[in-house]
Amino acid sequence: MSFTIENKVALVTGANRGIGKAIVESFVNHGAKKVYLAVRDISSTKELEAKYGNKVVTLKADVSSTAAINELAKQANDVDIVVNNAGIGTPYATIGKDVEEDFTAQLQVNAFGLLRIANAFAQQLEEKKGALVQLNSIASLKNFSQLSTYSASKAASYSLTQGLRTELGAKGVTVLSVHPGPIDTDMSAAAGFEGAAATTEVSEGIITALKAGDFHLFPDAMAKQVESAYQSFSDAIVLADF
């Protein structure tokens, strides 16, 4: 299903920096009527508020808390599109003293966070025939050993995104799963990636993919390499009706 940003009300989690901030700017530049900036620290969006004025509204949100996300949905009760961008990514291998704690923390945000967002906003999006965008990763398809627990948490979120495509898609909601490679963010820097792609490759790619009605977006050069290898499996299995 094709979905355009123009004149729509959007909500972006983790909107204060990195990919989230770029998504906000792309949405406003492509004609969004209003963008909710859903962040844990409401003082962190001052730059965006100064730049875009009443086009943006900051709301406190913590995707690791069900109560907080349910409250967020009550406050932002006019949204057409939700972008669940908030996530954490600590460089942690599979073997480690605190690996269970690390994996639990990443699941809490990266996978359960998606469940919270989807359930809180499902009714709104169904009524508006809106869109849900989930920021996954190429790490959802391949475990990178130095990011093992992150990769596993994103594999879980990607599986859930497929479920949402089936459930919400049947009710007229466009669902987009975004799979970037290394992007120029604090997370990529912490993981030691070099030559990372610009955040705008993701944000502008989302605009294009939504308009095309795609389910997958592999926005940058490395991600597109993964896409070329994954495409036949995706077409035959992931996107097939069983």
> Residue-averaged pLDDT, rounded?
94
Binned, the helix content reads: 40-55%
Low-confidence runs: none
Strand ordering within the main sheet: 3-2-1-4-5-6-7
Q: How do the SSEs run, as a string of H and E?
A: EHEHEHEHHEHEHHEH
Overall CATH class: Alpha Beta
Q: Which value, in Å, is the CA radius of gyration?
A: 17 Å
Q: How much of the sequence is in beta strands?
A: 5-15%
Total domain units: 1
Count all strands and give the number.
7
Let me know the largest β-sheet: 7 strands, parallel
What shape does the CA trace take? globular
Q: Briefly note the structural class of the backbone.
A: alpha/beta
CATH fold type: Rossmann fold
Tally of separate helices:
9
- CATH homologous superfamily classification: NAD(P)-binding Rossmann-like Domain
**CATH architecture annotation:** 3-Layer(aba) Sandwich
GO molecular function: oxidoreductase activity
Keywords: Oxidoreductase
Pfam families: adh_short
Family: Belongs to the short-chain dehydrogenases/reductases (SDR) family.
Description:
The protein has a single domain, classed as Rossmann fold. Helix content is 49%, strand content 13%. It starts with 8 loop residues before the first strand and ends with a helix. It is α/β, with parallel strands linked by helices and 242 residues long.
Looking at this protein, list some descriptive labels.
single chain, 242 residues, alpha/beta, Rossmann fold, seven-stranded parallel β-sheet, 9 helices
